[in-house]
Amino acid sequence: MFDDVSLNSDSRGNQREDDRQRAQARKSQVKQRDDGLTPEQRRERDAKALQEKAAKKAAQAAVGGTTDSKNKGNAKK
């Protein structure tokens, strides 16, 4: 039934080698962190940014603004 189909190692050509080369190229294009910060400094910076974001959100909620953009206009009836 499938006598005409041959599945030898040459049937895929050099796809694996091409994939390896593409993967290597993608690895070299990945940006390295160039902010010059140590991991501890980065953690402190990120924690400060999160605190500022939380404070901004709390202030907005205190004013009465909506903070949940997903449910905007979807009040249950």
UniProtKB/TrEMBL annotation:
Residues 1-77 are annotated as: Disordered. Pfam families: SERF-like_N. Residues 13-22, 31-55 have a biased composition (Basic and acidic residues). Residues 11-43 form the Small EDRK-rich factor-like N-terminal domain. Residues 1-12 have a biased composition (Polar residues). PANTHER family: SI:CH211-39K3.2-RELATED (PTHR13596:SF0), SMALL EDRK-RICH FACTOR 1 (PTHR13596). Belongs to the SERF family. This is Small EDRK-rich factor-like N-terminal domain-containing protein.
